[in-house]
Amino acid sequence: MSGSFQLAENLMLTLRFAGGTDRGRQREHNEDTYSIQYGSRGGFVVADGLGGHVAGEVASQLACGSIDDSLLAILNDLSCDTETWYVETAVLNAMGEANEIVRAEAKKNVALTGMGCTLLAAIFHTSRVTIGQVGDCRAYQWRAGTLRQLTTDHTIVADMSHPNHYVLERAVGIMEELRADVRTINIQPKDRLLFCSDGLWNMLDDNQLSAILSEIKEAEPCVLLLVDEANRMGGEDNVTVIVIDIIGGECE
């Protein structure tokens, strides 16, 4: 999916974006889900069903669908005067609702017991983006040649060389009360945002990601190349990528 939209009526700020997902080279099916909601503002979601867990694809689809509904409601309620704390609270509440929906569905169907997913949800508003995240889906900001990770992985061990670096301590569906992180950052023209599942960053390190984000100027071919490179490096997991370019000026 690709497209472009102006962030709000009294903004000169425009987002150009593309997203894609692939099952990779070693998985039989794709447990990742992503969504893009846009109009006068933008909402983006990445959900990754827990690999090796029961019905991970069901969990990611349920969570993504729930967040979609919530993001639309939040986006319709935003204006240039909306304060950051309100947006952050709304995103956290939306993620909590997604957690409840996944857990409720698992209780109704014994075959779905234990299902879960990681989740990232982002809302662009005025010259800011608010990002909610649980698990190890990541958000990055690329600015002037420098790549910065905006999220923290909720894994038992942070060290990538440790054999348990991939074991999650937080995820949608596995916690009675979801503990998600939320943060808001300022955005400006020429910024590029990358949202992705771990199937991308487990295959490509920061230098490789930064090189592709720097070299490929349009969002859609950038997404395609990131997915292709993850698969070329082994494609050990499903891979989902959203790239968003910030074009234009600032709030009048």
Explain this structure to me?
By secondary structure, the protein is α+β, with helices and mostly antiparallel strands. The chain has one domain (2-251): PPM-type phosphatase domain (Phosphatase 2c, domain 1, 4-Layer Sandwich). The chain is 29% helix and 33% strand. It is built from five helices and eleven strands; from the N terminus they run ββββααββββββαααβ. The protein has helices at residues 56-76, 84-108, 198-201, 206-215, 219-232; strands spanning 2-6, 11-22, 32-38, 42-49, 117-125, 128-134, 138-143, 146-149, 181-186, 192-196, 239-251. α1 runs antiparallel to α2 (84-108). The longest helix has 25 residues, at 84-108. The chain starts with a strand and ends with a strand.
- What would the average pLDDT be, to the nearest integer? 88
State which percent range the strand residues make up. Answer: 25-35%
Order of helices and strands: EEEEHHEEEEEEHHHE
CATH architecture: 4-Layer Sandwich
User: What ranges have pLDDT less than 50 throughout 5 or more consecutive residues?
Assistant: none
Straight-line N-to-C gap: 30 Å
Q: CATH fold name, please?
A: Phosphatase 2c, domain 1
CATH superfamily: PPM-type phosphatase domain
Question: Roughly how much helix do the residues carry, as a percent range?
Answer: 25-40%
| Total number of helices | 5
Shape: globular
Q: How many beta-strand runs?
A: 11
| CATH level 1 name | Alpha Beta
The overall number of domains is 1
Query: What is the CA-based Rg, rounded?
Result: 17 Å
What structural class results from the helix and strand content?
Answer: alpha+beta
- Major sheet characteristics: 6 strands, antiparallel
